[in-house]
Every structure is written in C-alpha cells, then in structure tokens.
Amino acid sequence: MKAGYNYRRLTRVLVVTLVGAFSILIAGGLAIFKNEAPRPSQIVNQNGTELISKKSLLSGQAVYEKYGLADYGTYLGNGSYLGPDYTAQSLHIYLKGMDQYYAKTLYHKDFTTLSDLEQGGIKAKVRKEIRVNRYNKAKQTLRLTDAQAAGLKTLQSYYRKEFINNPQQAGLPASMINQKKTDAFMYKGNKVDQLTSFFFWGAWLSSTNRPDRSFTYTNNWPYDQDAGNVMPAEAMVWTAISVALLVVGIGVIIYFQRRYQFDMESRYLPDSPIDIDPDLPITTSQKKVAKFFVIVMLMFLLQILMGELMAHYYVENSFFGLPLQNIWPFNVAKAWHLQLVIFWVATTWLATGIYIVPRVLRREPRNQGKLVDLLFWGLIICVGGSMLGEWGSTLGIINKNWWLFGNFGWEYLELGKFWQIVFILAMVLWLIILMRGFIPALKRKADYDRTRLTTLLFSGAIAIPAFYLASLFILPNSHVTFADYWRWWIVHLWVEGIFESFAVILIGWLMVDMKLTTVRSTVRALYFQVILLLGSGVVGMGHHYFWEGDHSVWLALGASFSALEIVPLCLLVWEAYTHYRVYRDTQKVFPYKGTFIFLMWTGIWNAVGAGALGFLINAPAINYFEHGTQWTAAHAHASMAGVYGMFSIAIMLYTLRNVTKKQFWTKKMEKAVSWVAWLTNIGLAGMVFITLLPMGQIQLIDALKHGYWHARLLSFYHQPVVAGLLWARLVPDLIFTAGVVVLLVIVVRAFFNLKKDDNRAATKALEKLAAEDEREDAAELKNDY
C-alpha cells in the first residue's frame, strides 16, 4: 500500500453505491404506491346493495392491529406462524362458499354430494369468475357477483365462530375481541364482521387479476389451485437468473478482494504476547455502562422465556395445564419476544458506544455521566411502558389510545406510536452523547487513518436512529402495501442492513483498539465490506415485496440482489477464522478471549443463518410456496440470535472486561464464559436444525401437495411427527436457557466488581495510550514506502 493513502476512491465507490441502491429502492417504492390494490369506497352486490363500506374495511384493519393478530397469524404471508394465514384461509373459505352457492343453484344439492365431474365444473366456473376485476375506478366501487356475495357471507359466518367464544384457538383467550367497543381508528358496528371485511379484501386482491394483466395484485400468491393461483413463470425465470448472478458475483468479488488486498493485516505475531492492557483507569460514564448490561441480561432472559412459552403453545393450548393464555396470550408473548431482542441488542450497542467515547476523545466530556443516566432511565421507561402497553391493548385494558400506548399491530413494530417516538428520542440522546466525543476527535489532523476509522464508526452510529424514522410514516389506517414497504425498512434495512454494517465497523474498531490489525488495512477492509453489504442488501430487501400487492418489478430486483446478499455474508467466514486464529494463537494472558469466541460464532452464523438459510428461502420459486412457514422462522432465529445475539455478547464482554477489576477475571470465570458460548450455540443449533428446519420442510411439502392454506392450519402441528419435533425442541431450549442464566450470573457479579472511576487518571492513561498508538501507526506508515 502507498503511504498517504486518502481513501478517496473507496469513498466515491461507497457514495455511488448508496445513491444507486437507494434510488432503485425509492423508485421501486413509488411504483409500489402507484400500483397498490384499491381499497373500495364500498363493496356492493349485483343489485348495488352495500355489503362492505370503506369504514368497515379500515375498522377491520384496526381490529387486526389492536389485538395483535399479526403476532398470532399472518396477513399476506407476513406475521407470526401459529395461527393461520388469514389471506389464504379467507380465500379458501370464500371459494367454498361460492362452490356451495353454485351447487345449490345449479343442482339443488350440497357441494359435497356432487359427482367429481359436477364439482370440477363448478370449481372451473368459480376460478374463472373470481379472476375478473369488477372494481370501478371512477366510482371507487367493487361489485360482487351473487356467488361472490355468497362466499362473503360464508366467510362472515366462519369468523364469527372463530373469534366469538373460541377456546379452540391455541394460545388465545376466548372471545378476545370486543365485538361492540369502538376504539381509535374504528367505526361503529360488529368488530368481528369488520375484521372479516379486512380479511375478505385480502382474499379478493390475491385472487383478482390486475387491470389488463393475467396475474393478481399479489403475483398469484397464495398458492391455491382452486383459485387459479399458481407460481408465475417469472418467479422461476428470475430464480434461475439469481443463481447465475450469485456465481458471477462470487467470482467478481473474490477477484476484487484479492486484487486490491481488502484483508485486515495482522499486527501481532502468534509467538509473541500481545501488548494490550485492559486494566486502565475508567471514567464516570464508562463505569455507568455496567448497569445497562444488567438490564440487557434481564431482557435477554425474559425474551427467551417468552420464546419457550410460544413454543409450548404449538403443542397445547395451556402451559402444562396452567391457562397462561389468559394472562400471556401467544400474540403478547410474540410481541414481547420480538421487541425484547431489539431492545437488548440495541441497548448493548448503545452501552458499548458510550464506553468508546472517552477512548476516542481521550478524556471524559463534561457532565457526560448525567446524560448517560438520563438515557438509562429513558430506556427503562420505553421498554417497560411499551411492553405493558402491548399487553394492555391486546387484553382490552388500553382501548381509546391503543395505537399510541399499546400494540401498534405490525410485526417488529409492536411499539405504540408514543413509544416509537420515545425510542427515537433515546437514540438521538445517545447520538448527542457520542457527538460530544466523536466530533472533537474528528477534527484532529494527526493520525489520518484512525480519524477515518472513527468517521466510519460515527457514520454508522448516526444511521441507527436515522433509519428507524421510517416507522413514523405508518399509521393504523395506512394501506397495507404502503405500511409494509416502510415496515421492511425497519425489519430488513434497519435490522439486517444498518445493524450489520455498524457491527462490521465496530468489529474493525475493536480489532484496531486491541492492536490486532493495522489501522489502514482495517479501514480499507471495512470500506469493502460495507460497500458489499449495502450495495446488495438495500435492494435485496425487495425479496419481501414479491407477494405483497406490489409492483412485479420486485420479482427481478428482489431475486437478483437477494442472491448477491449472500456473498458478503459468506465472505465473513474468513473473518470468523481470523477471530478463531487470534483466540488460538495468542498467549494465555490475552484478556479478550471470551470476546473472540463469540466473534467467531458471529461470523459462522452470518454465513449459515443469514447467508445460507436466507438464500434457502429468498429465491422466488421457493419463497412462493415457503413464505411464512417454519423455514422463515429458522432463518430468523439463526440470523437474529446467531449474528446479532452473539455479536452483542462479544462486545458486552469486551466492555465489561475493561470496566471491571482485573482480579475478577479468574480462570474459573473465563471457563464460565466458554461454557456460555458452548451452551448458547449448541442450544441455538438444536432449535434450528432439530426442530425448525425439519418442520419447515414438512410444512413446505404440505403446501405443495394441498395448498398454502392447508399447510398453515393448526392441525399441521398436531401431526405425530411434527408434534415430536416440537417436543424435541425442549432440549435445546433448556440448553440455551442454561447458557443465558450463566451469563446473567457473570454480568451481575461483574456489576459488583467494577473499578473506581477516576477521570483524571483515565485522561492521563488514554493520552499515553494514544501517543503509543500514533508512534506505532507512524512506524507502519514508514514501512509502506
């Protein structure tokens, strides 16, 4: 490498990549909004009599959201997996009602008593009838045939039985939905009938062709031959193209990585001890981060307990005979399970960022500790308040302002709008805490490479609250297509894109801070990795838009870029090996071996969970049948727990090692950390490979044989083989829980063994450390000539 390298070319490539990727994403979003399925002002029968008003439709959507049904079943394939997919189920019931109507009209018999030939004739007639788009755009009116109106009536009757006095629904309390109470974004009328209106609209848009097109608003999803919904040819074509692009992409990226040497160069020799001292004095704000980690572990433990409760609801309605579904219904447990993982992962990163500020600035910013305390209590209020709100609105305790303080109703966005704003404000406060150290550090003219590394880290930190702002665009009455477009900005772009990039940058910063890699090679490697991650991941999130009632252009974009997403994730296997090599080669006195164990597992799960399992489900030809089955759950667990969970534990151990007394980290304690790594990773692997993947395969086969609606029936989980797999999950669940309990004990004990804070002593130590780093960097720079 040349001395005086200024990163201009890499910066230009990164900027061009981001501008191009987001231009495609936003342009695609505009196409989505322009082509979204209409919400009629009224749905009428042949005689013009109103059957469903737009008010009823919007009110039904609000009922779906308030009672957290997205955390029980799915709508358009998105949500939770215990309950049915309400779109596919509604379509199936609606078609049965139409079949029965024609059986009575044409043959004066029950449909089930007809001959195969007669049944086939009626099904063909229904199939043809539902594909005709009878929406009048000028009048904003949808006219139903007599048979369709009969199908709607059948659907209404079905859901009245399902949601009124419904103890047969596993994990839900009986009569959960208040039929008469009118809350925010709702209108007067029977709330179960209004909910059915919302479900019927989903069935209509998924079985009716777009104007002047031969496919439905959902590109023929869900798979149901009775509705004429079969996989579009484009899905197979773009699946094949995406695989070809994957092969080409691997070759091109490996070429650039080798050609321009985008590897982190080692700064240590395996046979020499690493000169690193974690036992420096600490500042006031650094000491205060320890309490964040205690809360992190309590949230982590509660999160997995909710996960285990949900897993049990799959096999029986109660919890070993205890009617916990009346206190913690499945949808509340799922909401808490999802929100807690976001909270504890985010809190770990916030706390680590706070610890880093004095390391970057080389001193404690004035009154920094007070801001840290304010952030701590803000997070406590946000976490506690939002969880109580989700519980209260689902059980009907919070009604009028449910969307503000209760369950907002979208998976991964269960926080009420008020709590979303509080969470954003907490992250803005965190940015202010970082700015007080990072901005002065960025103004230093000396040590250009370290300044560039700090710039990357600070830019990644800014992106975390910035992209969560997408949540503010969604309201309870937003069109589901509009809402889901922005929701995936949170679920995929924020969690899987911005988090991933920030994690990669933070790993690089840690490698340099621990004097394991050279600064310049690390910065170059980070540029390369972030360009790959965001260049493929931003547009790659389009695989979520295949069947959402969106523009069909996403079949091409989503398929192509989703395949390319796998490449940078799998390249991180090499990074995992690098971390393992550090762990293996360094002397026994190396203080961060626990951190590197979990960094190693982070790289492995990045390749397996996010990469391989993500590729398994994202190709359109598979996703069409698999969407919303247990394979999706396998990918979610392996990527969220495997990548972000393990990485969060790694940086938590790094920070705790620096703020606790040296004598706390005995050989016994380090062995306990090693046990945590083995228990959590064995447990996670067991969940994924013993239960979720095999169960998902059986479910996929069921969908191929009988239709998607059939694979999502509750009876699927009561088959002997599937039930056996679910009971078998108890073993890895307990193993994983044991690892978390051990880690909780370690963190609590560390909290009571903190160093004394001494801002003056810390400043002197940090200035001395910085001077040593500058001398070493200058020596490396000289060697580049």
TrEMBL record:
The keyword NADP does not apply. InterPro entries: Cyt_c_oxase-like_su1_sf, Cyt_C_Oxase_1, NorB_cytochrome_c-like. GO terms for biological process: aerobic respiration. The chain crosses the membrane at residues 12-33, 235-256, 292-315, 335-358, 374-398, 418-435, 456-476, 488-512, 524-547, 553-574, 595-617, 637-656, 676-695, 734-752. The keyword Methyltransferase does not apply. It holds the Pfam family COX1. One of its GO terms (cellular component) is membrane. Keywords: Membrane, Transmembrane, Transmembrane helix. One of its GO terms (molecular function) is cytochrome-c oxidase activity. SUPFAM superfamilies: Cytochrome c oxidase subunit I-like. Residues 40-223 form the Nitric oxide reductase subunit B cytochrome c-like domain. This is Nitric oxide reductase subunit B. It comes from Weissella hellenica.
